């Protein structure tokens, strides 16, 4: 089983390569869908759990957010974002906070806003690193606690059946190749290789409640109205419908939204 220190080491080691992720096809589609999900963020307080180098934190600021708190387990990932922000003009609206999204923020003394103060909480790809059902529960509890009533969750997650489709396990057509798939109680483990100019791999563990979009766990914490941001009519897909058809037929990821009761 991967430990918290093991997760941190993994992310620290891939930090220098991770920014190249933005160049692969799946990332370009993902970015468009998250921008759509964010919408007008004017005046919002936003929490970005597992936000890494702050790609979507910066997008939220561009869309008008008043404040974005990035929480990540890897200081090396966040350093990339801090360096980018240090070169921008004016006062940054992004804060960088070291913490594990699967653990209670208060137990880690992470300096986020009080419970129920965020308008939007993002959690992009973190569910693919929930190594146990308890990890997954912890992530959803952190998300739910942070949101104000009526607040919005936005997250990217791998989904079935596309997790096991040829474009994801054989050809890597969209820039990600899953291999070494091993079914475990409650989910599966695999290696995800991102096919950037200099490919790199990361170990993943996915729970059925997440990749099958059951969402029983987050509903326990007061999240409702789960929706997938539609990608079939996105600009990215429509620019090259033939290229994206396999993904449209068997999507390997989804941008999902929900609302806090």
UniProtKB/TrEMBL annotation:
Q: Entry's Gene3D superfamilies?
A: Vaccinia Virus protein VP39 (3.40.50.150)
The protein's name is S-adenosyl-L-methionine-dependent methyltransferase
**Which key words tag this protein in UniProt?**
Methyltransferase, Transferase
Task: Give the GO molecular function terms.
Answer: methyltransferase activity
The biological processes this protein is annotated with in GO are: methylation
Q: Specify the Methyltransferase domain's residue ranges.
A: 46-151
> Which Pfam family, just one, is annotated for this protein?
Methyltransf_25
